Amino acid sequence: MIGPKEDLKPFSITLFILVTLEIIFVLFICPYLWYEVSYIIPMISLQLFIIAHFLMFLTMITDPGIIPRKEVFQAIGEIPDIFTSEGTDKKKFCKTCQIYRPARSNHCRKCDNCVEVFDHHCPFVNACIGKNNYKYFIGMVISLTLLGGMNIAGVILFIFYDGDTGRSSRSLVKNDTFLMAVAVVLALSITFLTALVFCLCIFHMKISMSGETTKEFRLNIKQNQSVAWFGEKSWFHPRLLIQSL
């Protein structure tokens, strides 16, 4: 289920950034929040961090909807009729897999597989996003957005809320100036990354409600077609259950 080796680098960088920012938040910001503000923010932040990475793991290991190639079908028996002719729905023939792929399926150049309801290939999780793992992907994006918002709120409280004791008294580092510098850099970093993830979250919420995939959305844009928030396509698996209005 894992993508090509060249995507291991962006995936590793993404994982490193997420883990590093959370560790800094927990070590330098959370002690003050826990004792002087509320333990709720550190607890929710940790829970969202775990949920987001669990969904990232599920996105990576779940079969996105890979369609076996012709030789695979032949090895296990016969090729189903749905993959042997274009039929009435004018299915496209994949020269690599040597099959007629179903509607809304596409061949991923990076993974070199045909994927059902292909959305896109995501190098940041090193996996194709398709029929079976889209729900985990969008759940991960939502969780990361909420995590970023929670951590931003925590850092703002750390900077502006004056508790009964100094910030350094609750931290491993006994230097308020250093802690404030860390908080400012952390706030800027998290805000920038959260803004990017938030835009991605809004985009996928939109195409989920309209019943499109990312590939279909891009194709419609290229063809100068207007895209409605609610379309005729809607389904429960793998996207949100939102019926056409």
Layout of helices and strands, plus pairs?
Blueprint: H1 8-37, H2 40-61, E1 66-67, H3 70-76, E2 92-94, E3 99-101, E4 106-108, E5 113-115, E6 120-122, E7 127-129, H4 134-160, H5 176-210, H6 214-222
Antiparallel strand pairs: 1-5, 2-3, 4-5, 6-7
Helix pairs in contact: 1-2, 1-4, 1-5, 2-4, 4-5
Keywords:
three-stranded antiparallel sheet, mainly alpha, 2 domains, 245 residues, two-stranded antiparallel ribbon, single chain, disordered C terminus, 7 strands
What does this structure look like?
Keywords: Acyltransferase, Lipoprotein, Membrane, Palmitate, Transferase, Transmembrane, Transmembrane helix. With 245 residues, the protein is mostly helical. It folds into two domains: 141 residues, no CATH class; 51 residues, no CATH class. 53% of the residues lie in helices and 8% in strands. The longest helix has 35 residues. The two termini are 36 Å apart. The relative contact order is 0.14.
